[in-house]
Amino acid sequence: MKPIITIAKNAGFCFGVQNAVNIALETLEKSEGKVFSFGNLIHNELVTNSLKEKGINAAQDLDTIKSGDTVIIRSHGIAKSVEEEMIKRGFNVVDATCKFVKKIHQIVKEYSLNNYHIVIIGQHDHPEVIGIAGYCEKKNFTIIDKKSDLTPLNEHEKLCFVVQTTFDREEFENIKKKISSKVYKLVEQFDTICYTTHERQCEAENLAKKNDIILVIGSKKSSNTTKLFNLSQRYCKDSFFIESICDFSKITQKLENLKKIKNNKTPLNIGIAAGASTPKELVSEAQKVMVKKFEESQNKEFLDGIEDSFVNYKEGKRIVGTVIFANNDGIKLSIGGKKDGFIRKDDVTVEAYNPENYPQGMEIEAVITSKNDPDSGCVLLSSKKVQEQKMGDETVESIRGGEVFEVVCESETKGGLLAKLGNYTVFVPASQVKENFVKDLKPFVGKPLRLTVVEIDDAKKRIIASQKKVLAAERKEREDEFFKHVQPDVIVSGVVKRITNFGAFVSVNDFDCLAHIADLSWKHIKSASDVLKLNETYDFLVTSVDRARGRVALSYKLLQKHPFEKFLEENPIGTICKGKVKSVLPFGAFVEIAPEIEGLVHVSEASHNFVKSINEVLKAGQEVDVCITNIEPHTKKISLSIKAATEAPEGVDMAADSADGKPKRAAKGKSAESVEYSDGGADNNPFASLLKGIEVDEK
User: Fold this and answer.
1) Known catalytic residue: 128?
2) Separation CA 151–CA 160 (nearest Å)
3) Side by side, which strands form the sheet with 141-144?
4) How does pLDDT run across 539-589, given as a tens digit for each residue?
5) CA spacing 20 to 30 A to 293: which of 116, 277, 282, 606?
6) Where are the alpha helices (DSSP H) in 134-267?
7) Separation of alpha carbons 631 and 594, rounded Å
């Protein structure tokens, strides 16, 4: 009966290890002198020996390296002081530290300088932990594990906890519970376990629960591989640590025993896991050895089972193929199964495709897009998608701190929008698409959104993101900049966006401001449209700013010349003009002498003759000639005179001989000199008429 063989999805090099190996090989190719890694580049003897054969030796101390030599910092990282010493000695330093480890370096450096006591959860002698401790600027750190007593930490006021990237997840959760049970004054905790470490541990646990035999491939010096084995052994007693091919001899008898127990009635279940520092070549070699052993103990049906498990043509699966040939149509690859793979030229790379860049024997990672290509008869692949996924995964790492990123929405789902970012699914809830709730999400499908992370679930490869937060932050930034410069008495330029019955809304740098109808014109208007036109740009004066309520008031009329000022320029004192009586009051009449310009004709200036009531000589609506006798620019008051604009009747002398410059009026038959007036003038005084004709003794 066919066996069921399951290989962990994340078996083999993790991103950090693969990156370190790639950097080492690229450095070796470019370097002219000797190349060293400081300590073993990764924890795997096969890889270390392979690098040594190629010319990269592992130096355990700096004295074995000379000035001018190249030294590669291993993926686990090193203490800051060691790197500074390397530079001081004249080494060409190449940093291959895993980016997840670098993140921890930044955290401990910052918090150490801020007088936090750094607590590193991990193995005391692990090079990664030693390197992390070396970034505590004030040497204020403690290394703990599950057995450590936390009591000594009570003496520190501020604590910052970080954890080794390959630390056991379950152990870390138990330590966190111990921490939470203590009462510390100020605690900062950072879960810095690499997400791939967590995934590998979850996969190993699931495999162990479902399979008869578990093979954990990797080095016993590797922390993460050892944890995988311990985790597997917890759930499956028949778990085997495979460091090299010779270790397969351990499972030969076990296979025979299980075969007898099952008696070919049920399939044999085998699970394979591999550490982050385990090369894929070792997994492939393990496959060959297993096939050979199964040939000795099983039938061809069993071998087919192995073939099916190692060569799965499921769409969406990532595989590594070897180039058979490359031409203008694309690349044909050997993918380890009965079929070859083919990558069409448009699916090779995100950059321009050149067949010469893909020599025979070159390995290419690709994703299966179709089990069968009718044109080539091969499994259809795309390496371009892998590149895009890797770029997306790199983007995921760069956005964990809340940085803005952009994705194109692929579809609408219940309650929001979906997109892809590398191997992650991005979900944008409907409430997070815009600042205002969006009911119809269809217009956003196929369109780019600018997002920030709300939550990342590495285990489920899921990101919850928000565009609303990005828009709100940008709006606040614009508002802050706007209110920084827009203050009362500042002139701004704005576009009229909306006209209402009480004024106009004006967009100033995309911020809505109000120009009230009373602030648009010096004369009365019925609508703002009498002065402003929609979508036209005008200058306005800022009259008030209310930052708390987000309100800005504008005035258009204050930038226009007041009608009074214009009138003043054209009509100085002494000008005679025509006017219309607008209203009559006991003390005089208001006469409009220009649009929106009125002056006062005092009762004493309404006629050359004595006027008992001004209604006797003036009526509302009556047109009269008036003379401008006085102007007060500050109060915008104009004094008018009708009698100064008309000739005096016979017998009245208008000569201004009095001391105050006011005209004296002669009674009929008398000269102007024979009658004098008080300071207030007699024209408007009823007692003055009683004195007319009385001789006054000069004595």
Assistant:
1) yes
2) 15
3) 141-144, 117-121, 158-163, 186-189
4) 999 999 998 888 999 999 999 888 888 888 888 889 999 999 999 998 899
5) 277
6) 169-181, 195-210, 223-235, 249-262
7) 15
